[in-house]
Amino acid sequence: MVRARTRRMVLRMILVTGATGNIGKHLVRELEGKARVRVLVRDAAKAPANVDVAVGDLDDARSVAAALAGIETAFMLCGTPAQEATFLAAAKDAGVRRIVMLSSGGVPFGVGGGPAHTAGEEALRASAFRWTILRPFEFMSNALFWAVTVRAQGAVYEPAGTGKTPLIDPRDIAEVAARVLLEPDAHDGKTYELTGPAAIDRAEMVAALAERIGKPVRYVDVPEAAFEDQMRSMGLPPFVLSGLMGYYRMVREGKLTETRPDVARVLGRPARSWNDWLAENAAAFT
To answer: Which of 35, 39, 169, 194 is the most exposed place for a label (fewest CB within 10 A)?
Structure first.
C-alpha cells in the first residue's frame, strides 16, 4: 500500500530503499525539495516526513512491485542477493528507467559485503536499465558497535592488527547518491569507489576517540578465531561471517589502504575525516 504524505509538484519521482538506515536517512534529506521521494519501509511510523510511504519488505516481491509503481528512478539498497534479484525483476516489470545501486567496496576483493552484491552488480550491468553503482568502503558508523565496551571497559576489541582502512562517513555516501540520482546524464554507466580522505588504523581511531570523549580507551587486537566465534554466537549468517572475516584478514595484511578520489570528484570537496565524524557522534560513546 502506498500512502501519500505530500502533494507537492516536483520534477522526478525517486524510490529510496533503506530510508531509515545510516545512508538512507541522510539521502532523503538531501533529496528533499529537489525531487518527489517515495520510501519503502517496514514500519510507516518510522518513515521520514514529507515523503510518499510504501509499506513492505524487500523479501516480499509483491510489496516491492507496489512500491515501484510509477517510479522512474530508484535507489537500490538491499542486503542479500535474493533481495537484489527481486528488486531488479520488479523494477523491470514496473518500467523503471534508472537504478542507482549501493554495492560494496569489497566486491573486487570478494570480502566484506562484496559477496552479497557481486551477482546484483553483474545483473544490473547486463540489464537495459540506466545505472550507476556506488561501492563504499568501511563505514565510520560501524564504530558505533564499540559503544558498549567503550562505556563499560574503556576498550575496543577487533582483529584488525595495525592494518589501515580508508573509512567513509555515511553522509558522504548519501550526498554522492543524491548527486548521482539528480544528475543522471553525468553519472550513467559509472562505478564509484567511495572512501574517506585517508587510511587509518584502529589504534589511531581509538586514540582520537579517547581524546574526543576525555576518557582513556585502548585498542585490543583480539585473535581472529575468538572474534569469529563471538560473531557466530550473535547469529551472523555464514555468508556474512565469511565476508567479514575475509575483510579483517585483508585489513591485517595491509591490502585495503588505498584511498579513492571519487567522493571529491562527484561532490567537489574532500570526503569527511574520522575526526569530522567523531565531532558529531562522540556522545554515543559516553
So the answer is: 35
